[in-house]
Specification:
InterPro entries: HAD-like_hydrolase_sf (IPR050155), HAD-like_sf (IPR036412), HAD_2 (IPR041492), HAD_sf (IPR023214). The chain is of the alpha/beta class. The protein is 47% helix and 14% strand. The strands form 2 sheets. Strands 5-4-1-6-7-8 form a 6-stranded parallel sheet, with helices on both faces. The relative contact order is 0.17.
């Protein structure tokens, strides 16, 4: 494994699990309703709220100058659900072991998430992991330009002074892998989230871990 000095980490379903803590179906219905009320045509049957937010700008029929304000109404409503989930989310097995390995090897960690900032901060503080992160980039900073767009990756890298050749990314979804790859960051996947192992490899992951514990063991063995 190459020598890394920086890590870009997805949050939900990678480090923590909010899947049982958030009613994502209800959140999707609410986000769709608010988008439609604010002149975004949402024809997709996909009720994943983040997907709806990301794709909605391609079907904006409202005044261009008010796009951000109108879009933020839907994003803000989703944040309500995410903040509730932050109070019940649990750290994935091996999470702290993995973060400790990064810290002990002087690897600077940044979060790149499509969740809202307040939910990430609340969850990370409640679970006692906030101090492991030197930077946190969320959809509040990039709006609809979420992963697989490269904007959140580039923002996170700039904030911690990371260089692509010394940086790896870890995520549970194809969109994570695509965003990392587009920024020339070494893309690692982890199972148990949005995408299967095969899907992650097909998207370009150089390795897919079965758990954070496995990831911790591998980084420890290669750097210890």
């Amino acid at each position: 494994m190459a020598a890394y000095s920086s890590a870009l980490l997805d949050f939900d379903l990678t480090l923590v699990d909010m899947s049982d803590a958030v009613d994502w179906r209800s959140a999707g219905i609410e986000v769709r309703r608010i988008l439609v009320e604010n002149s975004f045509e949402v024809s997709s049957l996909d009720l994943l709220p983040v997907s709806l937010l990301r794709e909605s700008v391609n079907f904006d029929r409202g005044p261009p100058g008010s796009r951000r304000e109108r879009w933020m109404r839907a994003s803000g409503r989703l944040c309500d659900f995410e903040e509730e989930g932050a109070e019940k989310a649990v750290a994935n097995e091996g999470c702290f072991e993995f973060l400790e390995v990064l810290r002990s090897n002087l690897i600077t960690a940044a979060v790149t998430s499509s969740n809202c900032r307040s939910a990430i901060i609340r969850c990370a503080e409640r679970l006692g992991m906030i101090n492991f992160f030197s930077s946190i980039v969320t959809r509040d900073e990039v709006l609809w330009e979420m992963k697989p767009n490269t904007k959140p990756i580039k923002m996170a890298m700039k904030s911690i002074g990371a260089r692509p050749e010394n940086t790896f990314g870890l995520g549970d979804s194809v969109v994570d892998i695509r965003a990392f790859s587009a920024c020339m960051v070494t893309p690692f996947g982890i199972t148990g989230g949005m995408s299967t192992s095969d899907e992650l490899y097909d998207a370009g992951a150089v390795k897919v871990f079965a758990s954070l514990k496995q990831a911790a063991d591998e980084f420890r063995s290669r750097t210890g």
